[in-house]
Amino acid sequence: MTENVKVERVTPPVELGEGPHWSGAEGALYYVDIFNQNVHRYHPASNTHSKMHIEGGPVTLVVPQMGRQNTFVVSVGRDLAVVTWDDPSKDCVVTKYTTIASVEQEREGNRFNDGKCDDLGRLWAGTMGNTDVPENPRPHLGNLFLLGHDSTVALMQDKVSISNGLAWSADHKTFFFIDTAAYKVEAFDCDFENAKLSNRRTLYDYREQGLYPHFPDGMTIDTEGLLWVASFGTGKIHCINPNTCRVEREVQLPTPNPTSVCWGGPDLDELFVTTTIKNIPQKQLIGQSDAGAVFRITGLGARGRPARDCEVML
After folding, report:
1. Which residue of the set 33, 217, 269, 309 is catalytic?
2. Cα 233 from Cα 224, distance rounded (Å)
């Protein structure tokens, strides 16, 4: 780790921060507070912060919709929907949204969790059962889906417990995935154009590496092909080399439960980290004023690729 690495808090705390997405067009970070049903926006250049509250259910992901200003694809419970935030610099409440697709209506306890667009603008988003911990009492209730350009939904992977981190190699031949309840960072061979996955395999097992009961959560990838994983419970971001299946670097945070990561900033060399107050005992929260905040890590000497907006026709 270089001496220039700096970790700084940049937003007020929320309950369960997740799903960070850097909008290069706006120079702004979007993220969610899942159970409070809020989409948050942090604009570093003006040091301003705003939020959009969405009525209807847990909000777990937010991605700008391509070609439509101030319009976003979000998850609301088991729905994927489009919402409009008339002025993202100001707080608002949204009571109506346009549903694109609904899944798993027979599983009332399920909801969407992590989601991200690939380089073709297709949204990959996974679900999970009604649980907050990896030791899912009813495992394999979720699935990983793909929302195509025509708004159709395809099943990509079934029997998922807690669908989390997603990333693709630069050549699109490898898809990286985290099912948190499996305590693993995994990889698939990817037929990218046809959106087909095969040859599922383990890259890094938290149990075997002695990190249990801590677990992998959100994930991103840098331009060198290294994976940056929010390791919930460790208070660290682990940088995993998928070629060697080893942790090459780690960054310590001032709070124990990071939830997800994404690259941002003008040069995409700043790593933004969402965190949560969940799973921290009430007595410990007194000394954890940073829990739930977003952090910015600079000086890593690494950078990411631009995040893709969602290209879907209504």
Report:
1. 217
2. 27
Q: Count Cα neighbours of 243 within 13 Å in the Cβ-side half-sphere.
A: 5
For the chain, give percent helix, strand, coil, nearest 5.
Answer: 0, 50, 45
Q: Torsion-angle region of residue 259: left (phi > 0), alpha (psi -120 to 50) or beta?
A: alpha
Q: 234 is written with which tokens?
A: 């460790």
Both structure tokens of 263: 């690259």
Write out the DSSP string of 262-300.
EEESTTS-EEEEEEBSTTS-HHHHTT-TTTT--EEEE--
pLDDT at 2: 52
Structure tokens at 220: 């991103």
- Per-residue pLDDT, 134: 84
- Those residues whose C-beta lies under 8 Å from the C-beta of residue 210, and which sit 6 or more positions away, are none
DSSP 207: T
Q: Is-catalytic flag, 217?
A: yes
For residues 45 and 94, give the distance between their C-alpha atoms in angstroms, rounded to a whole number: 26
C-alpha 133/C-alpha 6 separation (Å) is 30
Give the Å distances, CA to CA, from 98 to 80, 113, 176, 199, 243. Answer: 9, 19, 30, 36, 42
Please give the model's pTM, rounded to 2 decimal places: 0.96
